[in-house]
Design brief:
heterotrimer, A mainly alpha, B mainly alpha, C mainly alpha, A: mainly alpha, 14 helices, about 65% helix, C: mainly alpha, 3 helices, about 0% strand
Chain lengths: ~400, ~160, ~100
Amino acid sequence: MTQGLDQIFVTFQHWAVAHSPAAVQPAVSIVLPVAGILILFPSLFAITTVLERKGLARIQNRYGPNRVGPYGWLQPVADAVKSLTKEDIVPRTADKLVHFLAPVLLVTVVFLEYAVIPVGRNMVLADMNSGVLFFFAAGAATEMSVFMAGWSSRNKYSLLGAMRAVAQMISYEAPLILSSIAVVMAAGSLSTVTIVEKQAGYSGFWPHWYVLTPWGLAGFVLFAIAMTAESNRSPFDLPEGESEIIAGYFTEYSGFKFALFFLGEYLEMFAVSGMAVTLFLGGWAAPFSFLTWIPSWIWFLGKVMTLIAVFIWVRGTLPRLRMDQLMNFAWKFMLPMTLMVIFSAGLWKFLPSGVLRWLICAAPIALLYVVLGRVLQSERRIEKRVYRYAE
Amino acid sequence: MTAPFVILAVVTIGGAVAAMTLRKLVHCALALAVCFVGLAGLYLDLNAQFVGLVQVLVYVGAVVILIVFAILLTRHDELPAQTNRTRVAGLGVSAVVFALLAWAVTAGGAQMGAAVAAPEAAMKDIGGALMQKYVLPLEVVGLLLTAALIGAVVIAMEEKKKAR
Amino acid sequence: MTPLNGCLLVSALLFSIGLGGALTRRSAILVLVGIELMLNAANLNFIAFWRYGPHPEALTGVLFVTFSIAIAAAEAAVGLALIQAVYRHAKTTDVNQLDTMKG
């Protein structure tokens, strides 16, 4: 019965394809998963907006939105109505075509990223031989839309925000891709389906997730930090910080286009979280072998929502990083750490399993962390604190 | 001449023409991005998945952004067009080159190029070839990229003021 | 018009557009854009011949293009750094005005 529930969407797709006329069968078999993605992730977006506002509010010791609907849970409906009916103001000297295309491009490319994420057992839209590479190629194309938005607004602050955002996104793309290479090396394939299947085994009741290895843990932390920076979320949201640069590259967007940018940003966050879950947290596999009766797609969604909750928590807690601190962090700290993670993953493959393997693989990473910490902080001169008392 | 090929070829050529003829430099850069995406589509159509995805990742994601940053940092928007003589000479040379290449392509005959089955370019084979047969070019390219990185940073760096 | 000839014609057209642009535009950055177009045309040529030629399992075309993309990226970086340095000195990127070594 749990097998049936696990494969319920696949069975539905097979049934729909079998019961449609032969001419449209290929179309139906593709349109159904696409429609599923188009329904699932935007609804997740709607839920996340409320979750985020209420979560941040509680962290800041206030209520969030609590007027619309029971305890404020219908807030997304109000937001949707507002963004659809607000006047769409385009600056007079703006570049109209580029100004219009920027949010459209962002949302299109972000939806493309969902094609290679396995949402459940046998539930991936496109089982590509090089799924991970496709995902990162689509991520690289989102930087173009950020730049287009900032430049076409003819606004100094937008342009500045766009340049900062693009510099930040390029800098953090290197640790993002490098930390996923360690996983690709361990799994032996670039296909996301294969990577999840390699993590779906259990030894005893303990799962084979990559996050439970020393290089996987370090890699996951680095991937999560790079992920936060790629989506321009706090503490890396200087390009769009409200108190710094008004709204950065989407200052001149209002109404529906702003809603599209918002949607694109959140969807990208979900997509990259989905990739983090696929690469490190075992995808749709259950954490313990006695829990495999819960369907795989529920595990996947649960893990993604947990990551989102951690993001919201981090956003409410940590202060914003300055631009030069951000870039230093990416190039001087994260890049060497990811290279060491790749080295450690290589060691892991060739040592016999056991506690010794754990220690030998964790040692280079810990050593480099301590060394980098000492070297990078030695430039800071912290003087002895001098107190001035009121007389 | 299947429909995807024709559409992608039109997108690519259109983007290239736009990149070379538009007045504003940023529009040229964006048209170049469209051209590169069209080329990536052509590579995917020719069953070279790895190359197509690397094209998007490197060219659209890095080279176009480099060009855009250079445009923004050198702060000039529209330049007057070349003098007529230079323009005619340049276009004439490129037309002659195209005529020559087109003649070479079509006069070669159709011995090769009949539609054959698509070759499999599995990732494992590409990785194996890179690590076994082509390991020396791989290391040399790594060295070259390091040299280019350091060189570009040094060239573009502000010179330290030597005045006392 | 075999598929291979179609690809080769597209590549030839792309090459000549890049050449024409590199020869006629006045901005140094656009000359670089033309050069990038020419490199891409050559890459397309390689992939077309890999696809339709003999011995595609040797993967020669694919690997050549991979290295070519890497080298083109390095060349674009260095070229743009040079343009940046020239701009800082001569305050212009107009190739017609960068003629101090002429004559």
